[in-house]
Amino acid sequence: MYLTIKKEEIIDGLQKAASVIPTKAGAAYLRSIWMDASSTTEGGRLTFMASNVNIEFTGTYPANVREGGKVGVNGKSFVELLRRLPGGEITLRLEEDANVLSVEQGRRVYKLPVADIAWFQPLPPFPEEGAVLWSGDFFQDLIDRVFYCISDEESSESLSCICLKNIGDGKVDVCGLNGHRFALVRFINDALAGILPENGLLIQKKYVGELRKWLGNDEIMINVSERRFHIRTGSGNECMSIPRSANYIYPDHLSFMSRLATPGASSLDLDKREAMTALDRLLIFGSDKDRYTSLSFSPSEVALSAQGQEVGSANEHIECSFSGDIESIVFPTHDLIDILGHFQSEKVHFTLTGVDGPCGITGPEDTEYTVILMPMKIAESSYYEEEE
Prior knowledge:
By secondary structure, the protein is α+β, with helices and mostly antiparallel strands. The chain is 20% helix and 40% strand. The chain contains eight helices and 25 strands. The strands form three sheets. It has a twelve-stranded antiparallel sheet. Helix 3 (136-147) runs antiparallel to helix 5 (205-214) and helix 7 (272-282) runs antiparallel to helix 8 (333-340). The longest helix is centred in the N-terminal third of the chain and has 14 residues, at 7-20. It starts with a strand and ends in a 15-residue tail after the last strand.
């Protein structure tokens, strides 16, 4: 292998590859970035490949290839070296006798030991048949709107996954659920709906987080195979695949949504920003494990209150429009702030099905976006002092 590359053209892809490989754990071949150089009529190309067994990344970039070949080096060291070099041309040359990769730029010369080529395992190409063109920034926005509602506990199985499901007529529901709050975005995309598995596409939260970092504003191509979810940049030069959680069954989320149509449900409309600033102040009051806000309703005003044994109590009143029979309800303060922060609408609407029933939150400017939050039940505590 003997070639010249420009740092500016490869460094972003290299850093994506480095984010995939494990830092310490795993076999040496998994800690390697593998490079495959080949000549083309336009001069040549260099392909980087990295995997941690679960996530697979491939990136192909232009290069001036004098001699093709394949080599693997320690991924973290290689990327850190190139990241710290100034911009411009960099020469990569395999010295087979010394079993090192020479990295040269001007009078700078670095030699990195290479991995045994027998360890190399080629990554499967992006499956072209049935692939769907989609918007990267739209997908990124969908993830942002449901990600915070996905359970962090991997033992929760399907609750630790994002779910994309075809619900018919080209409609796709994107869901996140952790047991006490649920987020859903619905949109129409006939092509995407057509490739989704019958039970939905489930991807674990830890992989969704990596996918979120990779997405940008460009168009993407996506596809689903029996075991994996595949994504490729519109230009075709970068591909990533992550495992599907094909053995998990996602809860019937449509049953959650149907409960919001409970007859006699109460209705609350209020200003999002005013509510968030009030809740942020109330967050001060209460213990770390027990921060909740009680909402008491009248037709034009909602009273928010919080208290803690050591920090005292707080009461605020904000304007609202309320109708219904519920006199008061209790929610976790952190959850309310978090949920409201994901809405773009200036006004938000609460559908309250009962003091212990699901509460649906929507906004007029947040089309087909619904978050469901379960109220809290507060057990009264008594404190006793010994008399002398």
